[in-house]
Amino acid sequence: MGRGRQKAKHTKVARDLKYFSPDTNYGALARELSGSETSAPVSEDSEQWPEYSAGGSFSEEYEAEDDEESRSA
Predict the structure, then answer these.
(1) DSSP for 5-73, written as a single string
(2) Alpha-carbon Rg for the chain in angstroms
(3) Distance of alpha carbon 27 from its chain centroid, rounded?
(4) Are 31 and 37 a contacting pair, CB within 8 Å?
(5) Which of 13, 35, 60, 65 has CA atoms 20 to 30 A from the CA of 22?
(6) Do 12 and 19 touch, CB atoms closer than 8 A?
(7) Residues 38, 46: contact at Cβ < 8 Å?
(8) Domain boundaries in the chain?
């Protein structure tokens, strides 16, 4: 696709985004912005791998190994 066609397509998309006004759920937006949720959602990863999502102990362990290797080299 040439630069002219690419620019025209981009301009069309930008114009559509500028002038298209979807139905906005302002109640949900207000809840999201105010942070009124009582608890943060738990990701699936933290349930599957709790030892890795618990904190920085994993990375600290490997940083210590890296420090030892760099001293011996």
Answers:
(1) HHHHHHHHHHHHHHH--PPP-HHHHHHHHHT--SSPPPPHHHHH-HHHHS-SHHHHHHHHHHHHHHHH-
(2) 24
(3) 23
(4) yes
(5) 35
(6) no
(7) no
(8) 47-73
Q: Tell me, what's the pLDDT at 59?
A: 65
Q: Decide if 51 contacts 58 (C-beta within 8 A).
A: yes
pLDDT tens for each residue of 13-71? 999 988 887 788 889 889 999 985 555 666 666 667 666 665 556 566 677 777 777 77
Q: In this structure, what are the phi and psi dihedrals at residue 8, rounded to the nearest 5 degrees?
A: -65, -40
pLDDT given at position 38: 55
Structure tokens at 36: 């009124």
